Every structure is written in C-alpha cells, then in structure tokens.
Amino acid sequence: MVTKASRIALVHTKNHAEGVKKAIQLLNINPVRSKVVALKPNFNTADPFPASTHNDTLQALIASIKDLGATSITVAERSGPSNTEDVMKKKGIFDMSKKLDFSLIDLDKSDSKSWVHRKPESSHWSNGFNFARIYAETECVVQTCCLKTHQYGGHFTISLKNSVGMVQRSFMNELHKSPYQRQMIAEINTAYTPDLILMDGIEAFVSGGPMVGNKVPANLVLAGTDRIAIDAVGVAMLRLLGTTPEVSRGTIFQQDQIARAVELRLGVLSPTEIEFVTENTVGKELAARLKNIILEH
User: Fold this and answer.
1) How far apart are CA 293 and CA 272, in angstroms?
2) Can you tell me the distance from the alpha carbon of 117 to that of 262, in angstroms, rounded to the nearest whole number?
3) What's the CA gap between 145 and 165, in Å, rounded?
4) Is 1 inside any structural domain?
5) Which SS3 state, helix, strand or coil, does residue 105 take?
6) How does pLDDT run across 209-234, given as a tens digit for each residue?
C-alpha cells in the first residue's frame, strides 16, 4: 500500500510575520481562494505568547489569507479558563478586527443554534459534546496554534489541543476531570477538518503551560494541513529543547493525543509519512534532527 506523505513547511526564524509568510509560501497550496474562512486562534487566556497567539502572527496570517483570495474571514474563539470577551479586549482583538476588516465571534455569547452536537463512535465522551457550528459548517477552516506543554493533563497543547476552544464551555468539566482527557482531545477533532494549520513556535513553553511556563526560544514556524503531523513535529521540537517526563516518554506516536488521533485516522498513520519542506540549509538541518526524533523507537 502506497501512503501519501503529509508535507510540513518548516521555517527557522525569530520573526513572527516573516515566519508566517514564508511557511505558507513554502507549503505552496491555496485552500482559501474564494472561500469563507473561519480562523481559530489560541486565546485560552490573554497571557503573553506562547500562552496565546502572538498578535503579529495573527495579523500576518490574516494578511496572507486575504492575499490568497479569501472572500471573508471570521475569527471565532472560546477562551478558558478566562472570559472570552476579557481576553479579546486585553489582546486588542476588537481594535484589530476593525483595522484589518475581519469578523469576530465570541463563542461564549453564541446562542443554542450556534452549536451542533457531536458524539463520535466509541469515544470517551459520556454523551458527546457541543461543537461550534461555524467550524463544523464553514467552507474553510484555518487554525493557528502555539508550541507548549500542558500541566493540567493534556501533556502538550499544539494543533489537536487547540480544537478544545471549539467546544462549548459547559463540556469542559467532563474533559478536565476525565482520566482520558488526552484521548478526548483527539476525539474533538473528528468534528471538523482544517484546511490550513500554522504553528508559531518562535518561543515555546517546555514545562508548565498553558498560561505560564518555562519559556525558551525555538525559532520555528510550521505550516501544514495535518494535525497529527504538526503535533508530532511540535513534540519532537519540545524533546529537542528538553521537556517534561510526560512529553518525553515513549515514542512520539505513543503519546496519547497522537495515538488516539491515529486510531481515528485524522492524519498520517506513521512517522514515515511526514515530509519536510524547507527554505535553506539551517531549515534542512533542523528538519533532519526533528525527523530523527520522530522516527526514534
């Protein structure tokens, strides 16, 4: 059986806007042209990057989406534990939306019609969860995630975990109390398929997280369409930097979030299916190091 490789664009940079632009160019796809785009950032709190999406990254991503010909962009988010409106105010997102002409949805204020119920087969959710309709039904989904560990049971929070903010707040109690939290995170991702993922790893939390942690430079921006591949590369980068025992344990594809996502066939099924696209020698050397870590048994 011939498997199709998942391409991950890798840019080594210290500049958020430059990293966004180059990573999307390297990926060399255009999933947004003439599409209505729903954009999911990482605004669980208003704490500084990498706790939340860097404003430079969000602005650059919106500019790139517009340049690629999207018909409209809506940023929709449900923060947690913080109040969503407070987070958006503190980060200046309301002003940004006016300046850059994109729509903004506070999912905490959405009515019952704004949610669809999803109950994945054989899931660890007792009775499924309510998922934001905009992400379930829009023409195109773009998400941008950070690179960080998660000290409250997730172990790491990259693209799979970023989808938790698409679920109604009332379901968070079950998620956070469950011994199967990491599997449930993967199961949320059955509710939609992203068309573009941008991971900003210019800085990373290698321990602690998601709001505060041990922050180190990683100088990395990734772009792709595959959540498993993005998370596998992100975990490899955390390991390269030196991270928690939980994130360091076993092979990368044995990590609970990734293993469950593989069972659900949400992306690549093995580390050999990940293919890097880079722009220079530094990027190629970093990609080779990360690939070796991903392939470790």
Assistant:
1) 12
2) 23
3) 11
4) no
5) strand
6) 999 999 999 999 999 999 999 999 99
